[in-house]
Amino acid sequence: MYSLKLELKLNNLERSKLAGCAGFARFVYNFGLSMLQASWDFENIKASDSKRLHKIEKVFTNYVKTHPDFAWMQNYPSAIYSCAFRNLAKAVDRWRKGCSKFPTMKSKKRGDSFTVLKKSGVYPAKGEAMLPFSNRQVLFPGKRITIPGLGEFKLRQPIPFTCSSQTFTISRTADKWYISFMLDAQKIPTSVHEVESVGIDLGVKCFATLSDGSRLIAPPSLKIAKTKLSKEQWRNRNKCFGNRPQGVKTSNNGKKYLKKLARRHAHIANVRKDFLQKTTTEISRKYYRMRIEDLNVSAMIANNKLSEAISSLGFYEFRAMLTYKEVFFGTKVEIVDRWYPSSKTCSCCGHVQPMPLSERVYGCQKCGHTQDRDENAAVNLKNCPNNRVRAVSSALDGFPGLKRLRSPEACRRHTRRASAELTPVDRLGADSPGRSSPANFKVFELYDLSVLCKFCIAQ
Ligand SMILES: [Zn+2]
Predict the structure, then answer these.
(1) Whether 147 and 215 share a structural domain
(2) What is the pLDDT of residue 45?
(3) What global pTM score does this model have?
């Protein structure tokens, strides 16, 4: 399985149509989240989150969507809102499992995205099985794509071959719109690797040093782009960016600048992604077994002096890319124990001596061997004893946060502050209208819907 992400070539009409779709998805997501939180206050009702969300979706379909105030929803394909509910259910599920934080309200400021899918297949007769592949959208090679429910759009890059997909996600980064979809295809792994094994030492001065002496240096364009960004930020430091509590609006020049800023950030992200993709592919083609140090990235970022350099290079992404490319290239990524003294050990005789960060050359006090610090570390990683190495999948399991289980108290902390003793009327007074009720829902409407949801969930 792999996916394609292509840029859409849009005119202004299409642009606003897609922005509207993303707004609809955002509205539904926020609506579902606020109703779910409200439903936790209901007394004597025991239901799982998925059941609650299922009922809330039903209330949305039968009550909210048909309400004349929300007639604008009829203009958008219904797949959008069912996908938004599904995304919300996934987010809540991940939070319950302890994989991620509690889902936050979606905001217009944090990018747009929505998902559509081809809902129904073709059934020859009632009760019979669906015709195979009829619930999939067939995509032909070329620069046009048909999105289910939205029509035909132009692409900047062509689709390379005839393929089909059921689900399409459309997203915006800065002012560019992208479409991504999954293909039921597999890349055939390379059978022969030039070199058997390699050690990779990641560093701040030089992005990566390989044990055969080659170096990967971060592209200079990244530094240029970052300098430009910081100059831009300094020049525009006095612009008015608005302050909602004080009732200050963003100035027109401020808006223009924010758009420009988003483009610059997107450019930097693209440069970095391009560098990482190219280098990881190159490495995966050449080497079979790769050994990387288990870097405690979050602890390194806590160090003020190193943080900028590390987070801008993307060590974590580098490793993640190497890992997912295991399948494509038939490689093996191994993680060396965090406490293995790779930079302190002599790669020649095995002598261990202290090495402060400022020393760039390793000079062995026992055998007199001298080597570049990073290169020495890379060779040590390559020759590391097998009992200090583990396969990458288990290393990812051990990542902080993934296995952290949440206590019931922590779950409850996220539920609404309004306690069960308060009557709904008190709640009305406690919530200030307009701000606490998200998605521009008036409080009394939210209350009405809460009653409806309570009734539905209890059934
Ligand atoms: Zn030595």
Answers:
(1) no
(2) 78
(3) 0.76
